[in-house]
Amino acid sequence: MVPQRTDRPLRGRFAPSPSGRMHLGNLFSVLLAWLSVRAAGGVMVLRMEDLDPDRCRPEYAAQLAEDLRWLGLDWDEGYGLGGPHGPYLQSERTERYAAVFRALENRGLIYPCFCTRAERLAASAPHRSDGQAVYGGTCRSLSPRERSELSQTRRPAWRLRVPDETVIVQDGLQGGYAENLLRDCGDFILRRSDGVYAYQLAVVCDDGDMAITQVVRGRDLLDSTPRQQYLYGLLGRTPPEFYHVPLLLAPDGRRLSKRDGDLDMGALRDRYRPEEVVGRLACLAGLLDRPEPAAAAELVPLFSWGKVPKRDIILA
Ligand code: GLU
Q: What is the tens place of the pLDDT at every residue in 10-54?
């Protein structure tokens, strides 16, 4: 278990993408993120990760905040409240991402990639466990002339050049997790060809700027964490501690997604009281023996990371 930092107050965050309604799996992560902060007397921040203009909408963000309140999960700083580290909408932080991007570019760490999706897949190394392809490095060493020729017809994405180096993440729940940046990830995208900054860049920039010391999120993001930890190092910042919580799986073993409409917040709110939803989640989290109704605030004294399971949970 990662030791609690004593030198600075714990600051956690909710960082939802307002691209639709949260589902039960998202609620499991947000409940644990909130309990961990509240049990330690820390500060909770709500940041809307509305980077992708095609998928995110302001009305989803408003609904998300309202759904969190309905569950009894509050925050001290961020969306709707403001605070010293704003703005708290990623769509309003583009200048920050641009500044960080330029700083990395000036250090020669970023290069344009003109590959199409089909070319990338054809040239990629064996797929990683999560099904993502490792970029084969086709555009890594293009000459200036090749770059200027290619840019006549295509707008490039921008990739970070990674070294042949293993990064080890000490996750508070999952333990040690190691990846070789070059072999397991490859040079990764920091800015898409349509100009949108990538999640990996934005999340590191924001958690750093917002002085976040603890990140609690779904286990599906564990394999993004070595890349993020590497970026923290490049930017000369201390990474937060990470807790990657189990995913909730449908009875057939599939990961819950926004398509499981019967488990999204809209359907849950139609059928249950907040205490019933929270009690069920608390039971899955090992905090209650039975799924009996409980208010989020009542769970604070019961919370301990030692009780939380590590493995994904199949819903009965
Ligand atoms: N915005 C991401 C999501 O909703 C979460 C990112 C994070 O917690 O680092 O999946």
A: 999 999 999 999 999 999 999 999 999 999 999 999 999 999 999
CA of 17 relative to ligand 1 center, distance in Å:
6
Q: What is the distance between the alpha carbons of residues 73 and 81, in angstroms, rounded to a whole number?
A: 14
Q: Is the dihedral of CA 23, 74, 5, 234 positive or negative?
A: positive
Check pocket membership of 61 for ligand 1, CB cut-off 6 A. Answer: no
Question: Does the CB atom of residue 12 touch ligand 1 within 6 A?
Answer: no
**Residue 274, C-beta contacts closer than 8 angstroms, at least 6 positions apart:** 70, 71, 72, 295, 296
Is residue 6 pLDDT above 60, yes or no? Answer: no
Lookup: tokens for 280: 């069920």
CB 243 within 8 A of CB 173: yes
Distance 88 CA to ligand 1 centre (A): 14
- Kindly name the residue from 57, 85, 161, 258 that is annotated as catalytic: 258
Give distance in angstroms: CA of 221 to centre of ligand 1: 8
Omega before 239 within 30 of 0, i.e. cis: no
pTM: 0.93
Active site annotation includes 310: no
Q: Is the CB of 182 inside a 6 Å radius of any atom of ligand 1?
A: no
Whether residue 65 contacts residue 59, with contact meaning beta carbons closer than 8 Å, is answered with no
pLDDT in tens, 124-152: 665 565 667 789 899 999 999 999 999 99
